[in-house]
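Please decode residue identities from the backbone states below.
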């Protein structure tokens, strides 16, 4: 990694929390006082997928996809431990811990403030979040923890394949919903937009530049030009997301706090579980950190879309999924900082 990239990442790691908070507040204020802007942008969507948000997420992860060398992807199978941790934590543990933690808080701890009907709805939103591990944002967290781009792509891609067959039965099992339907077009479009398109574009750009100017130019001159694009895309995405949900957030301050507590506990628990297991298995930090991030964060685009499709846009279920978006970025930034602080502990596992 060159000096320019190290400097850029250090700067943003130090200040990103403040920029995130500012963008979240800006988005809420735009939604409250300039509603015409999100109303206009909301018209540009297909199958519940916001095209402007998809573009910004693409902008976020495209620079990271340029770092992916397909030759290194072929070597992922030689070190499958990180993949096994990702699959087991995300699909055999995470949905069930989310259900247990959320049910305990909504039905027991918060019983004086939340009716049984609302508790059931909030639990449904939490389960939708817990059953959909992250697809797009994890590339940002991997970038900030200096994760292995090729390995992260495989971790995410295999998760997307598992989502296709596991998401519906797990949600149906945990919520007891018979005949649950999933908006398959939303899921497929999300995977294509957030993984396939930027990966194809990044690999094509990489090959063209290296063929034209050489590997040294690509690594030391071309890639550094994109150092700030990922963070700019993240911040603009937050402004847009929170402008869409500004009114909802302002109208439900207490319940947003109550919903956030079990979601934060779940996020931290799953991260430390995956990260700790990777340490015990002697995984390199560039594999362990993204493994923890994938499980801890959620595919909120899919969760919100499914909640709207199943329960309606005004349902409390949708509110719970939106709170997942609200708390995820600040919590994940804290976990990124922790992962970076503890990276020296993994040095003995490097080849």
């Amino acid at each position: 990694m060159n000096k320019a990239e190290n400097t850029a990442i250090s700067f943003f790691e130090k200040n990103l929390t403040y920029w995130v908070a500012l963008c979240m507040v800006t988005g809420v204020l735009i939604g409250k006082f300039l509603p015409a802007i999100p109303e206009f942008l909301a018209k540009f969507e297909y199958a519940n997928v916001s095209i402007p948000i998809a573009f910004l997420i693409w902008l976020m992860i495209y620079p990271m996809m340029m770092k992916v060398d397909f030759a290194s992807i072929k070597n992922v199978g030689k070190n499958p431990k990180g993949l096994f941790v990702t699959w087991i934590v995300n699909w055999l543990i995470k949905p069930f811990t989310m259900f247990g933690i959320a049910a305990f808080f909504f039905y027991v701890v918060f019983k004086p403030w939340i009716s049984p009907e609302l508790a059931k709805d909030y639990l449904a939103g939490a389960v939708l979040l817990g059953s959909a591990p992250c697809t797009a944002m994890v590339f940002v967290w991997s970038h900030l923890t200096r994760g292995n781009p090729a390995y992260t792509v495989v971790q995410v891609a295999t998760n997307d394949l598992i989502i296709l067959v596991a998401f519906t039965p797990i949600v149906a099992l945990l919520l007891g919903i018979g005949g649950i339907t999933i908006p398959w077009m939303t899921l497929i479009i999300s995977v294509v937009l957030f993984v396939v398109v930027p990966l194809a574009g990044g690999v094509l750009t990489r090959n063209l530049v290296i063929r034209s100017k050489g590997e040294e130019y690509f690594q030391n001159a071309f890639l550094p030009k994109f150092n700030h694009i990922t963070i700019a895309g993240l911040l603009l995405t937050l402004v847009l997301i929170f402008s869409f949900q500004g009114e909802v957030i302002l109208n439900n301050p207490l319940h947003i706090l109550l919903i956030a507590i079990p979601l934060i506990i779940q996020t931290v628990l799953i991260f430390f579980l995956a990260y700790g297991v990777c340490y015990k298995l002697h995984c390199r930090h560039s594999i362990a950190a993204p493994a923890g991030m994938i499980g801890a964060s959620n595919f909120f685009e899919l969760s919100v879309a499914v909640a709207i499709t199943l329960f309606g846009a005004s349902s409390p279920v949708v509110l719970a999924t939106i709170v997942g978006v609200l708390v995820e970025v600040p919590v994940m930034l804290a976990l990124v900082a922790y992962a970076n602080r503890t990276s020296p502990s993994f040095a003995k596992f490097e080849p």
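Observation: The chain is about 75% helix and 0% strand.
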